[in-house]
Every structure is written in structure tokens, then in C-alpha cells.
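Aim 2 progress. For Methyltransferase domain-containing protein, the working sequence is reproduced below.
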Amino acid sequence: MRFINKISALFMTVIGLNMCVYIGIIIIYDTIFSNTRCKIQTEINTVFHNGDQGKEIIGIPSEEILRNLNLEQLYLWYQRYVTTLQTFCALPKRFGSTAYGGFRICADEKFAVELGCAIHSYNFTLSALFESQVKAKYNCTIQNHGYLPYFTTAELMKRIYASDHQSILILRIDHNDFVYLCYLFYNIRNMNIRQLILEIHYHRRDETKERYMNLLAALRALRRSDCVIYWYERNWEFHSRTDPTRTNCFTVNFICSAKAVLKYRSLLDPTNVLIDQMDKASNEKIVSKYFNRHQTFCKQVRRMGKIIDGGWDICNDTQYRPKTPCLVYSFGINDDFSFDEAMEKYYGCDVYSFDPSMNIGNHNHSKNVHFYQIGLGDKEKEIFVEQTNSTWKFKTLKTIIKELGHTNRRIDILKMDIEGDEKESLPQMMASGALRNVSQLCLEFHSFYEIATIKKLYQFGFRIFWSHQNPLSPLYFQNETFSHGNEVSFVNTNIS
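Predicted C-alpha cells for this construct:
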């Protein structure tokens, strides 16, 4: 997308940008943010580097404060802002591919678009799958804009104004567009836009302070126009090749004209599912839908480890974030300690890592990361694996906890990526009581459709706050997008 019309650019520079230079508000509990450089550095370090003491940032500071930040601090502020949820959507429904090209639309009754809506896509060719699914659900019309070189912000606004229906606006932008966004976002409240999907491409080689300030000013204007974040995505396809914990593209989803944070249960309560009346196909669809509904609101969903496979999402809100001295169990390493190392680095946790397939023996991977060559199972057993010509040992979670002397300890994070063995292990973990002291559960389900187990997890107090569909395992049901592999993050509401 290129807003390069000179008259439009001049108009927005004089009017739009001046409108954006106002004193932004940042609320960090009851602390008033000082604009002294020393105080700024202290707050930056606290918010972004000390995970166990991180404070919840819900705004963007003034231009004066932003100018005192260096490039890395501006990046940190940007990435924390777009990854902090501002309202709750229980059903961020996926349309289109599970990989790049698909988008989430909030399908909650209060926030959903009306039938016959219009979708305006700017600088992005929507896939045939996305279009067919959206039309089947909402009977939307699709309008693509922005490919002509003389196209301007004013022209886009004119076309949206001409629509008689509620709209979803999809913008694909990069660093060349930041300076032109502020005027558009200040006027978005005057358009009939219900939801906004903002795909922000920003490569590290293109970073400058001025561009970050333009982008943050535009995001501030968007918040000023009552558009709030309900979902975001770190796009795997654009992760940094030099830093696997960083992405060059965020997709950020907004609900516009949303005044309240919704607090209600998932629309699909597993206790109401009639298990005995469902065949396997029905179970597959029911559980796939269940995994993609959020049941509780976590504002700070923090990625620990790699952006791509190997990293995991945890809740960093005050009630659930790991507290010193914290304890993490990580099952399924596959030679990737990025999650484990991040939990040690940012929270200072003692991390116990387990994988029977890694022939490296028990050892200390680092000061606080301890590796054990055993797997998680429903009972103690040994299995000979022909492919590796080795014997794998398995133990129950309760046995492992006892042997490590953690029987009465809170386990802040329990991560499980055990390639389908969760089908046998998870019921045993609940039956033995081993999950009762687990605060957060991060679990990849592999073609897992056991409704009785899901129901029991719910009864134990575990609520979904985030889920991610594996883009490599798509599952399509009659104009709906799901995945055979779901990375699901839970908080235990019985533990504070």
C-alpha cells in the first residue's frame, strides 16, 4: 500500500499529524510515568525485561516521552502494546487458511458484523477460501482497494463512507505507510467500521525512530477512536532469521466502538455436551470448536521462546504470572530449549525439561534448566524404539513430582508437547491429583477429541485464555477452518 498523492500527503501532514500530537495517557497501576530519561529506562526495564515484576501497559505515552526512547525501547513499546489485549472476545473465529492469508474475525454476538456486511481489503488479495467462508457466514460483499498508484487515504475513506452496511477493514501496511495512517484512524469513528484487521510489516532493517513514532501515534489515534485490541498474531512466515524470538509482521485485530470489556463464559460449555450421543466425527468438530473459544480474559499473552514452533504463550497478568521462586515443567524438547531458556531468563524460574528421545542423558543444561531423559506417561514403563535403536523410559507426573521433591510446590507452568501421548497421560494426571498445583497448562493437542477428558479439565478449573492452530495441520469442516494440531494455553482458576 502506498499513500503517495502529494496533495493528500500535505493535507495529512498539516492536519492529521498535528491532531496526533497530543499528550497520550499511560496507566501503569497508580504510578505516574515520569518523562525523565532515568525514570523511562527504569520503567522500560521493569515492563519488558523483568517478567516476574512486569506491569500492565495499556496506553501509549506522549510524543515528548517517545522521543527520549532509543530504537530498541521504541520497538519494545510497540510490540508490547500490540500484544496486550484490551477487550475480551470469546470466539476469535478463523476464516481462510490456518497459515498466512487467513484472518480472525470476532464472532461474539455483541461484536459480530451483521448479515450483508462489507469487507474492504487494502493492499491484500483475499484468498478464495477466506471469501467463500465469510460469504457463507455473513453474506458479505468483498471490495479490494489500493492497487492504483494514485489511490489515496481520502479515496479509501470515500469508498468506505459509501457503504450502507457495517464493514470490516483489512489493511496491509509497511513502514512507508505509517506517516499517513493517523488521519485515517482519527476519522475511523465516523465510518461504519465494526472490526479492523491491521497487518503491520516492519523489518528491522527499515527501523527508524521517526517511523516508530508515526506508527505509535497512529495506534494512539486508533485507541482514541474507540478501537480496542481483541486478538493479535505473530506471523510465523515473517519471523526474523537472525532472531527467532522476533517477528517482522504482526496481525492486530480491533473491535471498534467497543465500550465495555465482556466477561462471560465460553459459549460452548463442555458440561452441556451430550457425550453419549456423539460419534467420532461430531466429537472432532465439537472439540475443534472448543479449543478455539476463549473462556477467560488474559490481557498480557506473552510468547516465551521462538515465534515459530518451539515457543509457547503464557499469561503474564498479575494473578497468574510466575512468581519467584517459580517452577516450570517442560515435557517434549526435541532439541529446542528456547522456551525453557526464556522462562529462566525472564522469570528466573527453575526449569525441569524432559524428553525420552534425546540421547544426551540427565544433565544441567544451564544454571536453572535441568534436563532428564524420561518421558511423560500414564504409568511407569520402558519402550524399545527401533528407529533410534534405544529404550525410552516413561514416568507419571505424580512420580516425577515426588522424585524431584516438589510434592507441595506450585508448578507455575506445565508445558506438554508429547506428540499424541497426552491422550493417555492427561486422564492419569487428573485422576492422580497431579494437576491440582499447576497454575498454567500449555498443551499441544494432536488429533485429540476426547470430550470426557476436556470436560474434566474444565471441572478442575482450567480455562482457555489463548489458542493457536498449527498452520501445518489444517482441518476444514463445511466452510469452517480448524486444525488437527492445537496449541492451547489454560490458567487454573482455582489457583491465584
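The CA atoms of residues 338 and 386 lie 28 Å apart. This observation will guide construct design in the next reporting period.
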